[in-house]
Amino acid sequence: MTDHHVLTAENHRDLRVRTDRDAALGDAVMSCVTTPDEFRRVQSHYPILFRRNVERDEFVALALFGFEDGENLFLEDGRWDADYVPLAIDIQPFLIGAPAAGGTAKQVHVDMASPRIAAPDGEGVRVFDDHGRPTPYLETIAEQLGALDAGWQGSADFFAALRRHELLEPLTLEITLDDGSTNRLVGFHVIDEERLRGLDGDALGELHRDGHLMPLFMAMASLGNLSALIARRNRRMAHG
């Protein structure tokens, strides 16, 4: 259940948000959405995979945290064990909404049903100060929301280019863990490196001109993080 409201100083003067990391706060997720604008930062820690929405016949990019639903191998003892937390995770419980009637600027919304909402006098970071002004925390959130929204809006051209040049191929990954058990990662796509290498100069020039070539390379480089993710799973299993 969600309970979305437009964020205002009038209605949310005393709002506090939990910024620590825990499964109980909604961090126990296998993946989150990311965009090409974010690939450079994401690829430092996480595999970037692509998943097709069959109903809408479109692709989204995902930062991978685990190998099954509800598994986040970066959650350790109340902290996120990586230097960078993807925007789609870091902005919670906020989201960006449509402009007000007659306006053009998009509005910040908050999910009041989120477990990150703290008691007014409890733990958590304040969103507005005593004078109703945005705190530095909220200013950072607004910047992150803007970046994520811009990345999302701009990703349509990226995915159109991937389709035009047939640069996505299905991934089926079979993982054998230290205890002998086997996991299969299915339903995802990755960049088809052989197809990319086979593109002619005109096609590569087009991808570079439109700003798509660097995100492609970042997505391919990110797959090197799969072995580190498997190692995290093995360590977690070894420690129970």
From TrEMBL:
Domain of life: Bacteria
InterPro entries: SapC
Name of a matching Pfam family: SapC
Name recorded for this polypeptide: SapC family protein
